[in-house]
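Dear Dr. K.,

Following up on our conversation at the group meeting, I've run the structure prediction for LPS biosynthesis protein from Gluconobacter japonicus. I'm pasting the input sequence below exactly as I used it, so you can double-check it against your construct before we proceed with anything downstream. Let me know if the numbering doesn't match what you have in your notebook.
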Amino acid sequence: MPFSLQSLLSGVVAPDLLAPLLCLVLIALMIRAGVMDHPVHRSSHTRPIPKGGGIGIIGAFLLCLAPALYLTHQPFFTGPIFGLASGVILLAAVSWLDDLYSFPARYKLAAQFIAAALAAFGSGASLPMTGLFILGAVFITNALNFIDGINGLASGVMALAALFLAASGIQPVIFVLYAICLLAFLPCNFPKARIFMGDVGSQSGALIIAWGAMQPHRLAGLLTLALLSGVLWDVLFTLARRARAGDRLAQAHRGHLYQLAVRSGMPMPLVTMIYWGFVLWGALACAATQPWETVLLVLLPQLCWTGYICTRAKARVQDRW
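The predicted structure tokens came back this morning:
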């Protein structure tokens, strides 16, 4: 098992105690600001809910990051960490403005590539590997944004993934801090939502998780993909199914597996917890001795889940999916 409690605890520092308070204060301010997410035909909620909870998550993370690194004698202004912080700030700012004003997709995609490049170029990897990191980070950013459609799913997945990355010894100070910020937000969103993360939380937060795959650790890439396997499989399968059907891939829809599960009558909290379970299973799969064994173990529950949900949707979902 590539995880240890010692690695996890090595990331716990004093600013972690302040982060939940800062997160909750910022969330309270965003609830009072009243920037609402009004339901549309593809929404899972039926009444307007405040959005911008991601400002609490990302704001608390960034405010506590430098003190946490200082106390553990890690410089903030180094390539990897400064690149991550710069990318997160850029993507958070653009995502929040998009939540307010709804930019064209090309502007958001450009911001994602620039933010991913800022994070990746600090990794010290070769140019081809840096390009791969950038593409992977943009895909993960969009995947977690697409999956942030029901209460607690994306935030819970990212919180668990951050904890496992820390427990594996991958930047434990950073990932413990990020997990704490997400866990402070989670009760405000699950099982009933007082506020949504919005793009500012799902996109810039996803970049932090994707950055974990860029670290010089033998398991970094495989572990990150395994932890996010439920999310990544859902998005890839849905894109492939819609492409085969001739649907416009950029068009908003309600055809993701998690959405079909809810539309077919499964309780929303149960669907969320199943995706949390995929993170736990992905972590266990990384205990396999060979990478191909990990891949097979990760794919098995995804294939079972896909078959079950498609069969259930055919029987219970009346409109097109």
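Two things stood out to me. The first strand starts at residue 36 and ends at 37. Strands lie at 36-37, 49-50.

Best regards,
J.T.
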